[in-house]
Design goal:
Mean pLDDT of chain A: 95
Largest sheet of chain A: none
Number of strands of chain A: 0
Number of helices of chain B: 5
Number of domains of chain B: 2
CATH superfamily of the largest domain in chain B: Galactose-binding domain-like
CATH class of the largest domain in chain B: Mainly Beta
Helix content of chain B: 10-25%
Number of helices of chain A: 19
Mean pLDDT of chain B: 92
Structural class of chain B: alpha+beta
Oligomer: heterodimer
Radius of gyration of chain A: 23 Å
Radius of gyration of chain B: 26 Å
Strand content of chain A: under 5%
Largest sheet of chain B: 6 strands, mixed
Order of helices and strands of chain A: HHHHHHHHHHHHHHHHHHH
Low-confidence stretches of chain B: none
Number of strands of chain B: 12
Shape of chain A: globular
Distance between the termini of chain B: 86 Å
Order of helices and strands of chain B: HHHEEHEEEEEEEEHEE
Largest interface: A-B, 37 and 41 residues
Chain lengths: 396, 207
Amino acid sequence: MPSGRVEADLALENAARAKSGIRLMVITVAGVPLLFLLSGLAIRYAAFASVSADPSLAAYARAFCKWDCTWYVDISEQGYERFPIPGHTNIGRWGFFPLYPMLVAGIRSVFPFPTLLIATVASPACAYASCLVAWPLMERNMRAYALYCAFLMSGPFSFYFAAFLTEPLFVLLTSCLFLALKRSNYLAAGISCALLSATRPVGVLAVFATVIRMFEDHRARGGSVIGFPRWLLGRPDLLVAILISPAGLFAYILYLTVTVGDGFAFVHVQRAFGRVAGDPLLFLWDGLSYHPMSSWLPTAPQWSALTAIAGLGLSVMLAVRRQYGAALFCAIAITLPLTSNLASMVRYVVGLAPLSMLAAVLLSASKPTFAAALIFFLATCYFMTVAWLGGYLALA
Amino acid sequence: MRWLELTRSTRPAQLLCGYALAGALAAAELAILALALDPKVNDDYRAYYIDKTTTCLNRDAVGRYTPGRTVSFRSNGAREAMPMMVCGWSGPVADGTHSLGETSRLRLAMPPLRDGLLATLEMNAVIRPPQLSQRIVISANGTEVHRVTLSGAAPTTVSFVIPQAVLAGNDRLEMAFDYPDGIAQSPAASNIYNRAIKLTSFRLDRL
């Protein structure tokens, strides 16, 4: 056989192998979260069936709608109230940001299914998409990726990503933002941040990560620290990316100004929830000091305080790993709600994608820790789901 | 033309477009911020949510009441008691209606009266040692009509006169209960959750 033909055949074979390798990779990357989505669904349904007499899908969707979920259902179906609030209540829906309920309402306008049913599909779909976006963010580390997917879809807190809460969309948009920053696509980061800022009050804080990434870019090109503002001002594309970042928040403020008369109603209504500004350290200490009366298990305030501390610890680790933007974003996103109290702290920490990704990377450093973590996630999914269905306060 | 080409371009016209967009965004956000910093809300909203000068958000609740009737503020009287409660109450439950916050209010639609009223209220103080008493300042239509200090947790009957002067020209009676000694749930808890009394019954008689 002529040598030229052999080389051509080998090249073709290599190309075919590479192509099939890519195909296999795509199937694996898409298949791993799908597998955990299905296993999570099965585990959560088993947990639901163990506590519910009605095994129907509608009952399943209703059972998972706990705590803030009911607010989002109301916003999706009825929008926000004006003032005075109908029903002689002082608690308006204004404290809950509009993007996710709007998204569910938009889907409902096309597919005429009940709100909760749509959210029961949309939330895992967002979580699944978050996993796919996380793949390039995790440096294509398959073990860490699998563990991250297991955490989101089949983990102890997977019910947050299966219920009508903002966490699924928040994690998806956070992942999109950090992927855009990784690729120095600032406009995409700005748009992701704008959407984040309409999803949860702390979403707008991601703009700091954008600015830090810009600064890092500037320094990598040999720019000086002092020269950064001037460099920034000379780049209108970067200015637009920064200024568009809080657009979702400002749109909501404008909406509240027009309808309620108070653009900061989402802040002011916190009074009706009993949130009082205070010292985060004091709240942490109060939580830690709330000892159990009869059981050896930590109390709900202790769980919340410990989760906040763990979240802040992981934020420091992000900083140590030179992920300054993500570290700052997560640290502020934990500290800001901590200035009022420990309420919903577990959910807030779990909803910070950079922290979950870091935890997955750390736990998958060796095969034994990976296996142990995976088994732990799948096993605790059942029990934590039962706790969620039972309305356990720390998970609110 | 792609976005990046537009904004990264050094051509003055395109650079100008980028700055114009950035300027428009900044201007819009500043304008929205300016609007938000000057809320157009009524006094009740401002007092409760913004200035935080009250824990009792005024609402348009008005209960119907005819003098001479005793209204139970336990769960068995919920149907009659609930419409009277404007704010600052929780319940009614089996042991009465619990006050919430630093002030509670009742509002009643009343038939025209030529004389004053005798109010008879049964209530308990909420106590938590070392605090063993609760001071209560009661006002009718904005005028202070009675001050009382309840000691211990036992039910106490409180009677006082509401002079005709504070009722004149009003088809409504608005009663406010202020609690200077309300007990906070915890040192860090909001004052909207303060506890002071449990109201168990309410009665007005013509003088």
